[in-house]
Amino acid sequence: MNHTVPFALMRRAFSAAAISAVLTVPAFAADNVKIGLLSTLSGPGAGLGIDIRDGFQLAVKLNGGKLGGLPAEVIVADDQASPDVGRQTADRLVKRDKVDFMTGIVFSNVMLAAGAPTFAAKTFYISANAGPSQYAGEQCNPYFFAASWQNDNQHEAVGKTVADKGFKRVALIAPNYPAGKDALAGFKRFYTGGEIVSESYTPLNLLDYGAELSKLRAAKPDAVYIFLPGGLGINFIKQFVGAGLSKDMTLFGPGFSADEDVIRAVGNPMLGMFNASQWAHDLDNAANKKFVAAFEKEYGRLPTIYASQGYDAAQLVAAAVRDTKGKLDDKAAVHKALKAAKFDSVRGSFKFNSNQFPIQDYYLRVITQDSKGRVTNRTIGTVFKNHADAYAAQCKMPAL
Predict the structure, then answer these.
(1) Of 309, 338, 355, residue with least CA distance to 125
(2) Angstrom distance (rounded) from CA 375 to CA 367
(3) Whether the Cβ atoms of residue 58 and residue 306 lie closer than 8 Å to each other
(4) Which of 82, 92, 130, 268 is the most exposed place for a label (fewest CB within 10 A)?
């Protein structure tokens, strides 16, 4: 019997085996996980970015410097609340530093600018704040996950609350940028049975609200709804109360316009202000109790919504690293693990919708004095259960 194999046949067999070997090379576990934490760390919005950073880094510390079992390297950068700086820095983080995940952006205009280089590099972005309607709807992207909310959601909860409480004449104020437009659209979506007597969009860096206060005096609303995060809200509320308007107009806001950073700066004038959020420091679940106690011990202050979202973003990354056994080059596996969201959120119930934005509960809070004499938020009810955003049906999620 002739056992000689023709050379051409051997070559074809070898080539087929080589191709098969290439196609079946397994993904190897990474030595560490690198996160680009790009946030607003200077200017009027700095407090928001600092809280996101502190919440994220607290999660890393509580996990022994690791996320999902891998040593975590967090590269922190300041976007200066500038879309141009955000885009350039995101490009550097994904190309030069080759981060595995991006997170941290506060403002939606910066997020929309930084998204392009991030997605082009096939790097997963885990949002710890910005949730623009574009990414929830027609521009949804498999590399974008919102560990926070969609921009409209907190405002929808307050719109329903203001309507339920019977306020008939409402004035609206928000900054003139994408999240400001989303905010007031969300409020109006659920505010029914009353009249919007004025709607103002102010510059994102405005700190003197004299013109807006004059407009309120003339319009005479019975309720005022503001979306003015960070230093914007601090200045407005001080000026609103100082002008005596709080005697005749009830002030409402989303959670982040009535959060602990604003309360610390304004104090007693905020007592009685209603707001809505997907999170509160007094939510009764084990993950939240651990987070709040650890944050107070580490930083000496109550955490804000921003800090809670930074913490949850880190826990989501940790879950994805853990569930892929560190094989971060396997994008499909990482995507599947992120979508599963197998972590204990500080907000309680949490899952992703088809557009990779959360389905979650929203709570009504009021600013009051607690048993320690602190001016702070207290949860008084649930506005929405398992609430999804209004744009998910517009999302035709592309393949990876």
Answers:
(1) 338
(2) 7
(3) no
(4) 268
* 101-103 β-sheet, strand order: 66-67, 70-78, 33-39, 101-103, 124-127, 144-146
* Cα–Cα distance measured from residue 151 to residue 116, given in angstroms and rounded to the nearest whole number: 19
Residues of the chain with pLDDT under 50: 1-25
Q: What is the pTM of this model?
A: 0.90
Architecture per CATH, 153-277: 3-Layer(aba) Sandwich (3.40)
Structure tokens that stand for 337 in this block: 């693990």
Tokens of 158: 């307050």
* E strand segments, the chain: 33-39, 66-67, 70-78, 101-103, 124-127, 144-146, 169-175, 195-202, 223-226, 250-254, 274-277, 351-352, 358-369, 375-387
The CATH superfamily assigned to 33-149+281-359 is Response regulator (3.40.50.2300)
Three-state secondary structure call for residue 170: strand
Check: CB of residue 48 under 8 Å from CB of residue 306.
yes
- Rounded to a whole number of angstroms, the distance between the first and last alpha carbons of the chain is 52
Do 114 and 86 form a contact (C-beta atoms < 8 A)?
A: yes
Give me the amino acid identity at 294: A
Distance CA 352, CA 338 (A): 9
